[in-house]
């Protein structure tokens, strides 16, 4: 499985059908998955990467029939908490509990350190703008750093009020949320600059954040999920925030009589469909749900999967796979 990315793998594909159109990925990590990302539109093939608490980052090719082919694997010295792709699909970036971020050149199968923090790195994102490109890392050391992968020191470093718990990047916008539930929005076009600080609608710890776009595919807001089984939909610019911004409950059990108590589960990840703009949430109740934020309706909820928490989710860049 440690073959170079460009070579075919000897691993056989797994055709175990879980549902009508569900296929299980072969050779998954040996511990909890921390992050999932499909390859960008810039490459014709579809690849999936997964980082895990088993200290590794794995890559599979997803064939047109939905079957997977294991391609390659690399390791950190501690659990990996986040991963992302470069815009051209030639490189993968990882970050984790060993306080480092690394760059995986998939064609050359090289894996080199490109960044470091004083505490574990919770998030990593690739930024591609017309005038520059860089890698953004967010850490529990309360800093966000922006790196040119060819340099040993960051291009820019920003101090935040608390540990970074979640972040997202889309085009000219970055959103970061911290342990004290502060939300920072950054403009990226002329270099990373703070654009706005937004007060969260959620009263409990944030677990995830995901940027959404308008009909022209320009980022105009974000969804934040919390440990309280609730998601907030928030617009960056709105004339009526009390009307446009809202929260909804999710990943909770049905109230049971006579006390009508219910179990509440964390929202572990949020992903927006790249074409339709609907969103998916996954939770510690072992379910995934699809929502229409514009109509404020639930579209579908899955059955419990394997009686285990679902830690993360992602759509492919063409909107055909989840």
Automatic annotation (TrEMBL):
SMART domains: WD40 (SM00320). WD repeats lie at residues 73-114, 114-157. This is mRNA export factor. It comes from the Eukaryota. InterPro entries: WD40/YVTN_repeat-like_dom_sf, WD40_PAC1, WD40_repeat_CS, WD40_repeat_dom_sf, WD40_rpt. Pfam families: WD40. Keywords: Repeat, WD repeat. It comes from Rotaria sordida.
């Amino acid at each position: 499985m440690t073959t170079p990315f460009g070579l075919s793998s000897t691993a056989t594909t797994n055709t175990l059908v879980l549902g009508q159109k569900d296929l299980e990925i072969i050779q998954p990590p040996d511990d909890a998955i921390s992050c999932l990302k499909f390859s960008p539109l810039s490459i014709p093939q579809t690849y999936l990467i997964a980082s895990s608490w088993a200290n590794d980052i794995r890559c599979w090719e997803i064939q047109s029939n939905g079957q997977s082919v294991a391609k390659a694997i690399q390791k950190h010295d501690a659990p990996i908490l986040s991963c992302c792709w470069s815009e051209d699909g030639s490189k993968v970036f990882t970050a984790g509990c060993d306080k480092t971020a690394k760059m995986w050149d998939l064609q050359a199968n090289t894996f080199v350190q490109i960044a470091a923090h004083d505490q574990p790195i919770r998030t990593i994102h690739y930024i591609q703008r017309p005038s520059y490109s860089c890698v953004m890392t967010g850490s529990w050391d309360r800093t966000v750093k922006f790196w040119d992968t060819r340099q040993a020191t960051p291009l820019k470093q920003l101090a935040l009020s608390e540990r970074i718990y979640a972040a997202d990047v889309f085009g000219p916008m970055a959103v970061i949320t911290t342990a004290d539930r502060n939300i920072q929005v950054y403009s990226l076009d002329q270099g990373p600059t703070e654009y706005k600080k937004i007060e969260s609608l959620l009263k409990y710890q944030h677990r995830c954040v995901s940027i959404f776009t308008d009909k022209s595919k320009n980022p105009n807001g974000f969804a934040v999920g919390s440990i309280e089984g609730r998601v907030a939909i928030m617009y960056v610019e709105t004339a009526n925030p009390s009307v446009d911004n809202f929260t909804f409950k999710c990943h909770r059990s049905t109230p049971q009589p006579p006390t009508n108590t219910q179990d509440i589960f964390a929202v572990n990840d949020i992903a927006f469909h790249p074409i339709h703009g609907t969103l998916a949430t996954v939770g510690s109740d072992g379910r995934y749900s699809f929502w229409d934020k514009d109509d404020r309706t639930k579209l579908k909820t899955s059955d419990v999967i394997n009686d285990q928490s679902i830690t993360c989710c992602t759509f492919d860049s063409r909107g055909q796979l989840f």
